[in-house]
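Regression test case RT-17, inverse folding.

Input:
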């Protein structure tokens, strides 16, 4: 075992700042910060800023085959101003998450780690092992250049320090696994990598954070995320707080401090004990955007930091982005799988769990232009401005500077965030024999037959099949209950059966009855949230065979029909200009000027299919 303590302490002092960095006296050298007047937004290079992007899968620096200049040029072309960059302490393999052209999965010999290579063969991909006691000059040169080129284009980089090991193959490929480094560090299970228990690993991680933060001390277009999705893989809160303290302690003598972000949850969560030093709360798959209101009183930025697992259709990403920003969110970052190591300009046809491409980037650019058409630091969430005229089932979000300006957004996509379902009733088999019952779920599922729990897979996971054997009697009605929740990404729920005499099939409606005993099928109770606690609707389903993917079980009936709004807005008396914006094209579909009668402004929209935005500004002030 090498003496890591002495080596790391020496290296951080000698190497910090040893490579070229931005001149701290240059204009704009103060890094991106929370806006002092409204901390839901940012101040970057003297300008109020909201962060919006449709960006590559985080491997721009660690993957040597990725030419990041065309990529950054494409972001600039749409005036996007954010991208996430994984540090290289984590990498993926080509099979990971069914993403073809995954920038986080470099080919053999093309992975650039933040640590230096040794002369000893035996790394996962056949190349040289990693030496965790030495940092890679090549890596930090590339990182500095990437940040500089991003900065030239006005792009802020979220530098993600760590990421959990979601599955065993990812730990097998990781540099901190003892099998891949010459230091003998990392002889632990993958769910113990990010804790305070293993002092040698913690020492390696701490030294890396100090090195990275020291190297980037004078870079203005970067902030740090402690760990991507720390709610997976055994990452402890105490460890996260340790990393936040290391960042703060390292920067203590620096002229400027950088923002620190913490990834809180998939979906939504209320933060009751904020981590000291953290200014940005990141959420993934945060639709509907209820997490904004839940945490509004904390006076921190709240970012929808990852989407991209809702299929190839643009609509879910466009609508969730508009919803989040118009609910008062600070930023939105979509995973755009059209950026690959061979198509850095974003022209690939995505072959992945999500989408991306030029059309979606144009739609998200329209959102950015819309927000920036306001003095948005003066805006605050204000749904009460919609006094009347909102149809049932239509989503509505509003930001307002009361008496001055109003930004509103409407869509009929229905509830698309975490939800849960309970199906109950009876099933009646054709044969008396042992049956195998199957569930396919994404995410959690539980199944009871005759009040006995036979399948229990109540956790977040990709689509998977579970099964159990049960003894059933022909003609007998056996009680059945199936519970399901979706916490992000695609949503799949299926229930089928088979036996020696019965081919495998979705259990058909004629073999199911709701608890009332009338009709066929199962009673489905649908809840917002994953805990079966807030029932939104009930209905009888013919069976359980659903692949909602990017759509929602709560989508209003007839949502494809064109909609027209006639609204009353609660505004002070005065003359106003109203402009109806098409979020698909960014065009103004209709506009009018009129005066508010008393405290009401009555306006009518043009017809729209999926969504529409409204910009209202008082005239003559």
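Golden output:
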């Amino acid at each position: 075992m090498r003496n890591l303590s002495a080596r790391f302490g020496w290296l951080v002092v000698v190497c910090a700042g040893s490579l070229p960095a931005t001149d701290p006296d240059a204009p704009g050298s103060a890094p991106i910060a929370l806006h002092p007047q409204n901390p839901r937004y940012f101040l970057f290079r003297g300008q109020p800023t909201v962060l919006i992007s449709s960006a590559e899968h985080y491997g721009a620096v660690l993957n040597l085959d990725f030419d990041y200049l065309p990529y950054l040029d494409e972001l600039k072309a749409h005036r996007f101003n954010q991208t996430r960059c994984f540090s290289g302490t984590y990498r993926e393999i080509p099979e990971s998450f069914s993403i073809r052209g995954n920038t986080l999965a470099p080919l053999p010999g093309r992975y650039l780690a933040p640590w230096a290579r040794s002369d000893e063969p035996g790394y996962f991909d056949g190349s040289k092992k990693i030496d965790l006691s030495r940092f890679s000059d090549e890596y930090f040169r590339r990182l500095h250049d990437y940040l500089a080129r991003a900065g030239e284009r006005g792009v802020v980089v979220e530098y993600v320090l760590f990421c959990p090991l979601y599955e065993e193959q990812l730990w097998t490929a990781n540099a901190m696994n003892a099998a891949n480094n010459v230091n003998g560090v990392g002889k632990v299970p993958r769910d113990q990598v990010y804790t305070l228990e293993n002092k040698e690993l913690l020492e390696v991680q701490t030294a890396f954070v100090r090195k990275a933060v020291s190297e980037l001390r004078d870079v203005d277009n970067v902030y740090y995320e402690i760990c991507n999705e720390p709610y997976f893989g055994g990452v402890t809160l105490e460890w996260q707080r340790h990393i936040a303290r290391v960042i703060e302690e390292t920067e203590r003598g620096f002229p400027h401090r950088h923002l620190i972000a913490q990834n809180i949850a998939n979906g939504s969560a209320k933060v009751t004990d904020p981590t000291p030093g953290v200014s940005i709360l990141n959420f993934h798959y945060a639709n509907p955007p209820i997490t904004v209101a839940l945490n509004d009183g904390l006076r921190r930025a709240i970012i929808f930091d990852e989407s991209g697992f809702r299929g190839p259709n643009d609509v879910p990403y466009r609508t969730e982005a508009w919803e989040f920003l118009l609910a008062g969110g600070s930023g939105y970052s979509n995973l755009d799988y059209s950026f690959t190591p061979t198509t850095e300009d974003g022209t690939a046809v995505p072959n992945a769990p999500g989408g991306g491409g030029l059309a979606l980037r144009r739609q998200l650019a329209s959102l950015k232009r819309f927000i920036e058409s306001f003095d948005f630091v003066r805006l605050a969430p204000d749904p009460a401005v919609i006094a009347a005229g909102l149809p049932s089932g239509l989503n509505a979000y509003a930001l307002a500077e009361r008496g001055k300006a109003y930004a509103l957004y409407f869509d009929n996509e229905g509830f698309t965030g975490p939800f849960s379902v309970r199906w109950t009733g009876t099933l009646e088999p054709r044969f008396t024999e042992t049956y195998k019952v199957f569930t396919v779920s994404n995410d959690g599922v539980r199944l009871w037959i005759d009040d006995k729990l036979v399948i229990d897979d109540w956790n977040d996971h990709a689509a998977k099949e579970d099964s159990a054997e049960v003894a059933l009697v022909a003609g007998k009605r056996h009680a059945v209950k199936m519970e399901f929740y979706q916490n992000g990404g695609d949503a799949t729920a299926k229930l089928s059966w088979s036996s020696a005499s019965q081919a495998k099939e979705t259990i058909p409606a004629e073999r199911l009855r709701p608890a009332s005993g009338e009709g066929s099928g199962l009673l489905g109770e649908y809840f917002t949230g994953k805990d079966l606690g807030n029932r939104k609707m009930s209905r009888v389903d013919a069976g359980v065979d659903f692949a909602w993917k990017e759509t929602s079980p709560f989508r209003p009936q007839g949502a494809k029909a064109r909609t027209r709004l006639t609204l009353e807005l609660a505004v002070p008396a005065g003359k106003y200009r109203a402009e109806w914006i098409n979020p698909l094209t960014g065009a103004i579909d209709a506009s009018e000027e009129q005066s508010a009668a008393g405290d009401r402004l009555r306006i009518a929209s043009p017809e729209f299919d999926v969504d529409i935005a409204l910009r209202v500004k008082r005239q003559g002030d």
